Amino acid sequence: MLPEYDIIIVGSGLGGLLCGAILGKEGFRVCVLEKNRQYGGSLQTFSRDKTLFDSGVHYIGGLAPGQTLEQVFNYLGLMDALKLQQLDVDGFDRIFFLEDGCEYALAQGYDRFAASLKQAFPAEAGAIDQYCSTIRELCSKFPMYNLRSGEGMSGKETVMGIDTLRFLQSITRNQRLQEVLAGNNFLYAGQPDKTPLYVHALVVNSYIESAWKILDGGSQITKQLVKLIRSTGGDLFNHTEVVKLEGDKERLTMVVTKDGRLFRAKHFISNLHPKRTVEITESPLLKTAYRNRINRLADTVSSFCLNAVLKPGVVRYLNHNYYLHQPGAVWRAVEATPDDWPLSAGVFFTEDGSRPGYAESVSILTYMSAGEWDPWKESFNTDSQQGERGADYHRLKTEKAELLLKLVSARFPELVEAISSYSCATPLSFRDYIGTEDGSLYGIAKDYRNPMATYLPTRTKVPNLFLTGQNVLLHGILGVTITALTTCSEFVLVEGLLNKIRNAT
Q: What domain range is 288 assigned to?
């Protein structure tokens, strides 16, 4: 007789783990199934030359006392367990333009944020104030984002059809200010004439409120959530790939794993990409039209990341991040071709714990289409399921790494000589380890021109199958957290849950 769980969660990305931790804490018996060795999805860390690197999350926002993510993390007991370092309050992100060497700081706190930009753009004070007020007003339209009940589409539809680029153009004719305000759009894979303003607003607002590094890597969040799930009687199984969600004409009843194991539950939450979810779900309730709609949705672009170990005591540590842009690349970089790649890059330093003031490592991230890696798309390679992709693959990685380092050297000329070793992650690496379609940065791309077409509610056509994770409404750590809360509200009274979160200490 197979044990039956209250809820099975397929996939252990942040959304899946949050759902497991919250629902376990609220009295449900949960089971989390993960195909890879490591839990955590983009929170995974790895080591090269005894140096720790984050695979996807380099900094997070909204963790100051009373802010949304801090309150959720308090409720889950995470805040006391995490080692955090606040980034430079006078400029957590620096936007650097390679054409003229000009650098602009994005400060924490709206007053400081506005004052810093007004100093750089004294003639644009009105536009900067309008930007700040609009971002804050738009964020207020999303109740769960502010830990209020009333989630649903009411009030959101009026703001979901606004284009980020056109909004910026509407408040100022100063193109450089427009580029600065969108200069860290790697945080949501911003696309010109496509990315809705609500996506930009909800993501950047959390960082303007406060921006933090997780010392010892994002996997610290994973470890604590796994510990919490187990402490509430839940189970987690790694190396357990779900290949089928089976049921009858009315509901799902079990999952089938690649190695033939069966797990039964009353309810199911998928933290997989929605395309993969409908692919493995065998239910007549998912009609062809619904499946086709999901499969037609476009994903955000993928990325290429260079992770470098630095020679000890050589490079000064910078307690902020850099976004470097070629001329006109703030919005073009997402569509870079092999001929003009790379057009932009994000640069993230980690401090050497044994040599304060110096950097131990650096991660350099840029957009990249998965198409260049099509010759190897049938391959799969992780530390637990190794597969060799051959000399041509490694040769292409080296060529790309050299081009990326050349771009970054324009701002950091000392960096190349300071590198003792490096490794690279391609779109295939992100696909294999994190499980996003084609290595997509943030799952399904949102489009202001037809916002409801790219909006997926957590509830599916199968009454006991729900979605969670970064593919539903919002991007980033905070976005995934809010989506997880929305998913959990299908099982518990939302106002009661939010009261517990707001009152947690």
A: 4-47+57-84+215-298+442-502
